[in-house]
Design a protein that fits this description.
The protein is of the alpha+beta class and about 120 residues long. The chain contains 4 helices and 5 strands; from the N terminus they run H-E-E-E-H-H-E-H-E. Bound molecules: adenosine monophosphate.
């Protein structure tokens, strides 16, 4: 499967669709999920064209990988839900069909602001 340049996050990265930005650096963009599942629901995505975590881990540079993983903590800090600034959070990435991935651009969900609940429903 090739990367789809018309997926919604690619359009956000190109500035064709607006987002409520939380954080941005050279390699990472974070914004609020348009359909929040918890009190706080953010998304953290790489700026590079990666379909999912497996694609990312096989093709991304070490700098991109470090930036994305660290980006999750930076976003949690900024939102006041990290362990040091708040009460914790959950991050998850859906991968492909069985993972329930809808948007084919790698993204980590960040849920918090309240107890997130059961790990898998
Ligand atoms: P997934 O099922 O893991 O692929 O999650 C895709 C997520 O993207 C869902 O939680 C959607 O609510 C979210 N989403 C879709 N379109 C947008 C958008 N334009 N801005 C922000 N979040 C979006």
């Amino acid at each position: 499967m090739n990367y789809d340049d018309n997926n919604i996050f690619a359009k956000i990265l190109r500035g064709e669709i607006p987002c409520k930005k939380i954080y941005e650096d050279e390699f990472v963009l974070s914004f609020y999920d348009v359909n929040p599942q918890k009190k706080i629901h953010a998304l953290v995505i790489p700026k590079g064209k990666y379909i999912d975590l497996d694609d990312f881990n096989s093709k991304a540079t070490e700098r991109e990988i470090v930036a994305l993983i660290k980006g999750i903590s930076k976003v949690a800090d900024k939102l006041g839900i990290s362990k040091s600034k708040g009460k914790g959070y959950r991050t998850l990435a859906n991968i492909s069909e069985h993972g329930g991935q809808e948007v084919p651009h790698l993204h980590f969900h960040v849920f918090g602001g309240e107890k997130v609940g059961r790990m898998v429903e």
